[in-house]
Amino acid sequence: MRYCNRCVMPDTRPGIKFDQNGICFPCLNSERRKFIDWGKRLGELKSLCDKYRGSNGNYYDCVIAVSGGKDSHYQVYMMKEVMNMNPLLVSVDNLSWTKTGRDNFFNIRDAFRCDCISLNLSPDTARKLCRKSFEKFGSPNWYWDRAVYVYPIRMAINMGIPLIIYGENIDYEYGGGQTEETPSALEQINNNVAKSYDWSVWLEDGEITMKDLNSCVYPSDEEIIKAKLEPVYLSYFVHWDGYNNYEISRKYGFKSLNDTGEWNREGYIEDYDQIDAIGYLVHPWLKYPKYGHARATDVSCYWLRNGRITREEAVKLVAEHDSKLDRKVLEDFLFFTGYTEDEFWKIVEKFYNPEIFRKEEGKWVLKEPVYEGLGKLNG
Predict the structure, then answer these.
(1) Could you give all domains of the chain from N- to C-terminal order, each with its CATH number?
(2) Is-above-0.85 flag for pTM?
(3) Which 8-state DSSP code applies to residue 230?
(4) Which of 91, 117, 121, 136 has the greatest count of CB atoms below 10 A from its CB?
């Protein structure tokens, strides 16, 4: 494994690129932001909103894809309070909520006086697809994540609302195949989270039919063009900083897990991100056996790029937290999917990457953890 010389992200992250100096593209992009005229970008957002504000009379003039998290609060704050738009919030329901997450979801509608439409996925279909995508790809959340990208677009078409607001371009911000900075979110369905698989993967055993997959079928180019859709990333127009989003969201009633005292999660170094669901968090943890890093690496990199911690501090956080799977997360996942714990670990076993892990006394251990190679990496 090779690690970025500025942050602690390894080159095993799918689609990530490094420059000739061993610096990852997300770090380079973070540096470029220092030279962006954010006043000009905000002016571009105002012009975009002027184009759509009131274009449907008193009807909704934009769609915002939300979960109820800190970034969702920030998106609605920007569009409703700053840009004076009349948004319709669109979400995909969790099948397992934290109480804090549920309260935050209710709060976003109340605090900003917004209507919200939620898609409630079939639990039976979700369970079957969760098991299939876990066993085949080590990606149990594919069904939910795909629906999160598809449903707001579908609702925008159905309800005649062309402007759709998303948060950040995850590939550009954090590393992935889409490295171009652009306001348009038309291509985000092709990012590393929402990518398509051949439909036959889900249909081959006859448990699932195409009728079960409506929430995953993205509109055609012809449908999108006919509806004159304009999906955009808010992160293009404003300096995107998850911690700043968190601080603003708290002013409008958002609560962290620490605020409510609900849960102290293992494997996490903060208490305000991805706090809506429980068993869902198996999915981000599975990056560890597959790619050698998980959420502690992700968040350490965010903080490092925004100057909140040093690289040495990030390395220590990764060493202490990154490999841990929270017990509550595991138990909730097992309850929903119906696996025994032995069955779960047997499936996980096949996703450990032998190129970056070795087995010692029956346990998988990273061959080149960042906390052992710090001197070499900076040399």
Answers:
(1) 25-34+274-378 (no CATH), 36-236 (3.40.50)
(2) yes
(3) E
(4) 91
